[in-house]
Amino acid sequence: MRVLLLFCLWLPGLAASAQQPGKHELFQRMFAAIGKVRTLTFELDQSERIGGKMMTGSQTAKLNCAPFKVYLKVLAPDPGTELLYVAGSNGGKVKLNPGRSPHIVLNLDPDSGLLRKGRHHSVKEIGFGYVGGLLKNVYDRYRTNIDEWVQFKGEVVHHGRTCWSITFTNGDYALRDVTTGHGENVIAVARRTFTNEYELLELNGLKNYDAVEPGRSLKVPDTYFKSVDLYIDQATCLPVYQKMYDAKGVFAVYDYKDLRVNPVIAPEEFTTGYKGYGF
Description:
Layout: H1 2-10, H2 23-35, E1 39-50, E2 53-64, E3 69-76, E4 82-86, E5 94-97, E6 106-108, H3 113-116, H4 128-141, H5 146-149, E7 150-158, E8 161-169, E9 175-179, H6 186-193, H7 197-204, E10 217-221, E11 227-233, E12 239-246, E13 249-261
Antiparallel strand pairs: 1-2, 1-13, 2-3, 3-4, 4-5, 5-6, 7-8, 8-11, 9-10, 11-12, 12-13
Helix pairs in contact: 2-4
């Protein structure tokens, strides 16, 4: 039996990773996996283009998807900063501990300029639900182009995890004009069109996300990205690495590591009084 086992382990390909799925199958697996996520813990490294420069950051996170709760501890560029956001509590505000003297805990709108400075998104978009919705929108709209526009690049081992590497390029990417509705701000337009609100600021010469006058025409990309490189973890089917491009080049990179899917997270871990927190 021992000899047979050793022989089987030697056979080429027996211990190889999973068979490559079809392109549509891979996307369906990914969307299904995202839909099954209830809780996450992870470290996220990000790089986003702000004012023409790639700004980097890193944080650890605990996330409960529904109801949405998130605790973040910043590793860079402001180490020690903590954020706690629980949907439906604290008047919809984020608890912010700056992690430095003077020790003053702030309560801020998650879409405030202070919290969004130097980043594309608010804490409400962290995790896979938001990006999954963006990818599903593109997939549904261009389903008939998937075989042409999606390129398999084989396997890659990323942070010790075997992943499928793919590139999705929108062959019809272009800017279009969108008319703002009554009471809409830039974020609302971005959500309606499945695009990046920070990119809308740059494309339209706007300084903030505040409401814009009804009937104004805004330049909006056809899709959130012109192209995206994804590493899809073969074990979890989650997009653990995302590198996004617009017409100018790379505009965002998101890299998840130490990812745990659906761990038990005690309710008190989403409270300011939890041990080890500095609120």
